[in-house]
Each structure stands twice: as C-alpha cells, then as structure tokens.
Fold:
Amino acid sequence: MIKTQIGLGLAAIGRPEYINIRTDNSIDKSEDAFKKNAFSVLNEAYKLGVRYFDTAPSYGKGEAFLQEWNDVNNHYDAVLGTKWGYTYVANWKLGFDGKHEVKEHSTEKLEEQWDVSKQLLPRLKYYQVHSATFESGILENEAVLNQLYQIKKETGLHIGITTSGANQKEVIKAAIEVKVNDDELFDSFQVTYNVFDQSSFSILGDVLKQGKCVIIKEALANGRIFRNEKFQQYNKVYNILEALSKKYEVGVDAIALRFIMDNLQPTYVLSGASNKTHLKQNLKALNFNLTLEELKLLKTLKQAPESYWKERSSLNWN
Structure:
C-alpha cells in the first residue's frame, strides 16, 4: 500500500461537538459510539494508505482513542502527532455553554500533558505547541522552551507549533527564529491553509525549503467550501469548485485538498473526516492533479485573512 500525503486529524471523531457548519444531528453522540466510530475510521484510514494521525488532549477522547488503537494494532509504519497547551473542559456535554477548550502554555500544563502523551511513543513523531500566539507568550517563555528542548533531545521528537488567526505568517516567522543552546527548536508547523486563507503561502514555502515539516489543517475551511445558503457571498467560489468537481468526478472536498497538495506541496494535509464515507471522498484527491490554469483560478478565491478569521470566530460548536 502506497502511503498518502493525506493524514487524519481526530478533532471531529474524539468529541461530540466541533466547529463545522455542516452538521448531522442524527448520529449517536455517546462516548461508546464515538469510540467505536473512531476505531472504524482509523482502521479504514490505515487500510487506504493513511499513515499520519494527528490528535490533541483537547480533542475530547481523541488522544485516548488514538493511543488505544495504536496499542492494539502496533502498526510499525504509523506516524503519530499530538499537542499540548489546551484542555478539553466540555466533558462530553452536548450544547455546552462556554469554551469547550481552555488554553494554558505553562510549564505545569506541559508537564501534565506530556506525562500522558509520551505513552504514544515510539510511534509519536510530532509534539506540537497547540495554537502558538504572541498573546500566550509561548515563543518567549524560556522555561517552557527549555523543557521542550529537553524532550526533543531525550526522545528525538520533532517539536512543532500549530497556528491560528490572521497573523499566522508572523507567528511562523518568529517561531523559526527560536533557538535553545544555539539549536533551532521548532521542526514542524501545523497551519490553516485553504482556498480562502492563502496568506501563509510564501512563509510555508520557505519552511519547506529549510527541510522542515508543514502540516495543513482546516483544509475544508470548517465546511465553508460547500455550498450553503448562509454564505451567499461565496457563490462564485461554489460555482468554480463545483465545476471542477464535475470535471474530475469527485466531491468539492477532493478539489480543495488537491489544490493544497498541488499548490503548496506540504508534508501532510489533514483530512478531518468524521466517518468512513467522508474519508473515502477526501482520499479521492489522490487520483488526479489540477492543471496550472486551474490552480491559477483557485488562487483568485483567497480573501483577506482578517475577514476569514473574523467569520471563523463566529461559527458555532455543533
């Protein structure tokens, strides 16, 4: 089986609610049902060639599901990534009123979450700061940076960051410059990049040229690439994506994923599929390539990052 450039993110299969405008309220949202579905999706992904699996403590039971699946199967070629810095606090309550996850970039939180996450070794390869921002002070927190450096030296892990927000490229640029004992600390960068937010293209190209890892998240813009009457301003986008979808006989999701792979050529682009059907549809992106003219057309769909992230912040958990 050929390994794919598409990885699987567990955000939507580890917890009963997630930020996505496309919802299915008919599914069983019990913890037992989610665990059964998670194992089903993980097994199908591996069977279809997916080898990178990405999770976090804040993905509800996502990290626990991945660890158990990994322990049971012990696939020698599975590559795992997780994060630290966010805690899931919704406790599986549907319609939870408040923040579902709380950020804390402290040495205490790092120690607490690393003590659990290290059980993913030896398959664990990427250990990432979850949502590094200037506001959290993580890139200047010498105590935390030194701890991450020690973990890197003791385990050989790729230490990375994930980013969100309109200033992703500035955060990435600053993170590249972080050194501990004259060694560059960060080896991987997980970034939101899609047909709407293309603002980090140049800096990610530089990162790849330096031999570092780039992992793309939110490739489907939390469902906004699919035609939706609430987003009439995207009708031009929908028309273009649907025309390409018809040409290549795949879903719009596959077009969006293929755009990222052809235009940016990242290390991995994450599927956020919540079931086997969606996963198979996503993986159809591996069956074709977009032309240069089509890539040029899709590049015109970008919007200002400030607008993109303002709209994203208004989306509901469901």
